[in-house]
Amino acid sequence: VQLQASGGGLVQPGGSRRLSCAASGNMFEINSMGWFRQAPGNERELVARITREGRATYADSVKGRFAISRDNSKNTVYLQMNNLKPEDTAVYYCNCRSYRAIDYWGKGTLVTVSS
């Protein structure tokens, strides 16, 4: 499975940004798709994940501000980020997890929240 993420960039505090991640390869083995992030000096952390059936989970820090969605027909997952804060600044990584708990990662895309 290969993942191609896009949508990162510079955004002002309070602004919005949408990340996209297109997956290719053997998607039949994939259960969940999601986003992780890693800020400088921090460990990579889960931001949001969505299963093939559409069940979503979020980190507490982004609940109510971020929304994850998935288009199975396009093998694409989206992350709509609203009311962005400087602490959301990080490299965001797209992730797919198979039914056997194997993780696939895309190259990160940098989101910088700054005025």
Describe this structure in words.
This protein has 115 residues and is mainly beta. 0% of the residues lie in helices and 56% in strands. It is built from no helices and eleven strands. The strands form two sheets. Strands 2, 4, 5, 6, 9, 10 and 11 form a seven-stranded mixed beta sheet that branches. The termini are far apart. The mean pLDDT is 96.
SSE layout and pairings?
Elements (H helix, E strand, L loop, with lengths): L1 E5 L2 E3 L5 E8 L5 E9 L6 E7 L4 E3 L7 E6 L4 E6 L8 E9 L4 E3 L3 E5 L2
Parallel strand pairs: 2-11
Antiparallel strand pairs: 1-3, 3-8, 4-5, 4-9, 5-6, 7-8, 9-10, 9-11
Give the integer mean of the pLDDT values.
96
DSSP strand tally? 11
Give the H and E element order.
Answer: EEEEEEEEEEE
Mind describing the biggest β-sheet? Answer: 7 strands, mixed
Helix content: under 10%
Portion of residues in beta strands equals: over 45%
- Return Rg in Å: 13 Å
N-to-C terminal Cα separation, in Å? 37 Å
Q: Structural class given helices, strands, pairing?
A: mainly beta
Low-confidence spans:
none
Shape: globular
Given the structure, what is the number of helices? Answer: 0
Keywords, separated by commas or semicolons:
115 residues, mainly beta, seven-stranded mixed sheet, four-stranded antiparallel sheet, 56% strand, globular
